[in-house]
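> Could you send the Transposase prediction when you get a chance?

Sure thing. Input:
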Amino acid sequence: MITIQAKLGFQSKEDEQAVADLMRRWSSCVRFAYNRLLEGKSRNELKRDLQGVFNLNSRYVDDAIMKAKSVLESCKEREENPGKVIFGGRNLFEKLKKRHINGNEYKKLQQEWQERRKGNLYSRGDKSKKGNLNTRIEIDENGAVLRINVGERKYVYARIQAGCKKGKSREELLEAISTCQEAYSVELKLKNGKIYAYFTIEENFPEVLITKENGIIGIDINAYPDHIAWSETDENGNLASYGKIPMPELVNGSSDKREYYRWQYAHEIVRLAEEKKKAIAIERLDIKDKGKRGDFSGRKSRRIRHSFSYRSLIEKIKVLSKRKGIQVIEVNPAYTSVIGMLKYAPQYMISKDVAAAYVIARRGLGLKEQIPEGYMTILKELDADELEELKEHVRKTVNNKQLKKRQLKELDKAIKLIQSLESGTGKASGPLDGTSLGACSESCNLWRVLKVAVVTPLSPEKVLRDISVLKGVLHSGQVGRPVRARVPASWGRGYGSA
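Output:
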């Protein structure tokens, strides 16, 4: 979908007032239809009654019923109580209830509440009517205007004040929409006393020609440090090339500036895939509301949301890929960073982020990661008592409170899993080496234990930066003794400095 936002300019106050009155009646119609739907009324029953009650034509009423129905269905999908929906926004409603807000602050909130509740109008497009019958874009010698049906055979014309952005005039896009004879939807919203229009048309994408049959480029977007790591594989999943794209412009600056650069970086990724004739694999992430702990640790979720709008960048990559006919594959993000760090970073001597992108690319091909035999040797010899010793070592040696808390938490999870494996109630996996299709899907939890068992003894006081120390562990199955940290003797395995 392509959406264009523009402010409307009216020839007179009377015309603007007529449109505002239409928006008020349509918004009331939506709320009335929603309550009747809760009572079990059907669409046909409502359509007959609402035209006379709110003095709206059948198309406006049909769109109001559709909007009310979508709110109801959305509420049911989120498993919320449909009877407690507040049109205008619950957060704003709760603020207005607070007694300590008064004066101009209260008046601003009250105006915003009224505009959200009463200042809406939605008109669906219709291809049989060559666009949109109630709200139609027309082009004259002065530019684009919006013809709004405010009553029976009565129209108001509003100038579309669309400016230029990213080197292409919005008026050119509006002119193309008005002449293509395709259905487009128009939504009007009242904000700060001004009426804005949102024009939406469905985009027709070409056939997907670049698929994963030639290989995949995996993308790993990192909030800190700010960059995109990418890894290219051939059709068999072998590493072909890799690189990083720094994104310093997304750390700060205005929202328009960050939006511009998000498009630029998305174009760069898609150009790379187009040149190499490879599909794109990305992580399928569900970023929760900011401030709430959801996926990841909560902290990473908030950092992604605040730093550079992860979801926005991903969506731009997906849209641009569709326009170029490039296949985009979304994969499960679980343990991509851990597997990349432990398995592929030491093998190819690449960074953890590039290794994570490589894991993402391989998952896009349908490959499952098996735990190498050297690491399986460590897991087989590991028991909960050794992890308890390591916990005590972390308590004594790690000064950073946050790092200590995180490591102890990971160790606790690892101990519980090891105990469940010893009792036979947990997930187990046999000795594994290499990688094949569909194998070892049950061993994901073991990667977490492996990270704790290998990385924490090597670097208990700080984040492990030198991945090369893992190369010997990967092949020998022995955890070396770190230079600057004394660990329990059992972790040395008879080896010297790492």
